[in-house]
Amino acid sequence: MRFGRRALLLTSLAWLATTTSGCTWTATRAVSAPEAWRALEAARSRIGDPYEWGGQAPGGFDCSGLILWAYAQALGTLRLRRPDGRVVSDATMHEIFTHHAIRLSPAEAWPGDIVAIAEEGGAIATHGGLVERVEAGHVWFVNASSYHRQVVSDVWPLGGSKRGQYVLGFGRLVVAERRLWGIFLSLPLARFSSSLVEDRPSRPIM
Description:
This protein is α+β, with helices and mostly antiparallel strands. It has helices spanning 2-19, 33-44, 63-75, 93-99, 181-199, and strands spanning 24-30, 56-57, 60-61, 80-81, 87-88, 101-104, 114-119, 125-135, 138-145, 150-157, 165-180.
């Protein structure tokens, strides 16, 4: 009877693994410090590239485009999960800061984290970049600047405003990862296969 139950369970698991082999589920996580650093280095390598509204590639960037491109270089593939569950690779600066970042205090920000800029009197991120460092009441960050018309390293005060804008806040990018159900099913499947062989009687039961 024990052998029969295990055989039935093994068959069920095998069927489930086969029928769900094409299914995925999406988890999210905050980027690590090394990943954020690699993104910052990628952004720094584009200093001097021209500003281009909507640009997301070397030769022309806007602020969100530079952030997305830099993290795509750091991670290999960039996926973001929208509030409605869709997985995308594109987002505006407002969407990045609102939906795809964990809010941080200035003291918590590390190199490669996101700094968001808003217009005076507003609370929507209209500009931003990747943090280089935060000290002495200022933030140094790499950004594709419409004011300078290129990718630059700039410094802004944490209090007050600059050119009619102010530092809205800091965030750590949250990315999505797609994983196959089969990865998890293969573990119990292999375990039960092994136990089935071990528990098989050495001679027929009379």
